[in-house]
């Protein structure tokens, strides 16, 4: 987790929520932009394909029809006409079929057809001109015609497809600002008809007829996709992004405020001496004598009273305040013990819980040296309790740290053993002096066979590795006797004494009894 430092907090508090919301906003906008862009692109490709297919089909079906109609060209109009009429009535898009001779109508289903109604084939009247050059799709006077030149060049077929709405319908775009263009030579047809004004299209795609007819279909957008067009035409993704950005601001603000508050509160608690050192005795199993004490932090909160470490140690670790917190405990314990410096028993164990953060530099060695000077007693054995829950990496730095701690005659204890992630190599790497057996195993003595077996195994490991052991959470005489019998070196728990303030601890008969006269 991110470590927060005091000098960063003021700046962080102000700018971090804004920064987060801008980041979410920018990333969200990019995401919304590319999403919309992709959507448009996919739609363009699909639309272009479908349109191309429809025009191809239109042309091909007219061509097939005209081929079928070729049979009528050479027969008499009276014979041909009923057949042509039946076809016109059956096919909804065909308005009339006309047979031409020398480009003049000689037989038509349209009774009112005049020679001037026959569309000329010029480069201007927009014809779809296939490779075979013998059939044309003609746009003329707002009408769509199909003309088939028969083998006999004088006898031709003209199919009047009707108003070229048929074509226009095919060119109707799927979304606003989309334009579908049919490009024939220099001419362009859109849903609005023939246009010679160039239309600039964005995200466009142009494809030639699948059947290799001489036309192109181009689809694209008249509006470029940018921030403003997104705001105007695609507001929903942007509204979602705006919403996410506001949520990011609010959550970050809330998070920073809470962490910062916790940080400031804990920092001022340390400064104002509200973090107190409590002590709990460690007892030699074999003699029942006091071997030392473990120091545990308590917060004497002016409003909430006594707060147990479970609530604030994590905050202290996450904010980096744990080092200051431990230093204040070192100082309180050293100055209290200094009053008894000359009377302390030899090799009194004084254990402190040390977090991983504190082991990242040699600061801990300096703190221990300072403690021994302030306590004015060089025989005290400092016990550095590192927890198995927060494994410390083996690096050159940590190896040096633990070596220097051992040179100070300190002992390294591995706390909460049995519930964390360590393995036996860990014991070796840091030259662990004793294991503190988690109270969850001790609590099951006499009841849960499995936990008891684990407990027995842990004790056997300590004996096999020739390291000392300390059982935590001893609450009953039965547990105390069992652990003694099993050869556990030290015991700690409410059975002997619960943690009490260090000033009270030094007054306690258990401590007083072990002082030298
Ligand atoms: N049920 C039961 N509990 C017993 C008994 N005897 C002792 N305890 C409790 O067991 C915990 C033993 O401490 P720990 O394993 O080091 O576990 C400690 C330690 O990991 C951490 N902690 C406490 N003070 C500090 C500190 O100054 N620095 C750091 N880094 N961690 C600390 O907080 C944990 C909890 O501390 P506490 O709440 O003081 O809880 C203490 C103690 O009050 C018993 O017979 N029965």
From TrEMBL:
GO cellular component assignments: plasma membrane
Main localization of the protein described in the UniProt heading: membrane
Top-tier EC class: hydrolase
EC number in record: 3.1.4.52
Pfam families documented for this protein: CSS-motif, EAL
UniProt keyword list: c-di-GMP, Cell membrane, Hydrolase, Membrane, Transmembrane, Transmembrane helix
Localization terms from the record: Cell membrane
Catalysed reaction equations from the record: 3',3'-c-di-GMP + H2O = 5'-phosphoguanylyl(3'->5')guanosine + H(+)
Domain EAL: 259-513
Bilayer topology: Multi-pass membrane protein
UniProt key word rRNA-binding: no
Gene Ontology terms for molecular function: cyclic-guanylate-specific phosphodiesterase activity
PROSITE patterns: EAL
SUPFAM superfamilies: EAL domain-like
TM ranges: 15-35, 236-256
Protein name: cyclic-guanylate-specific phosphodiesterase
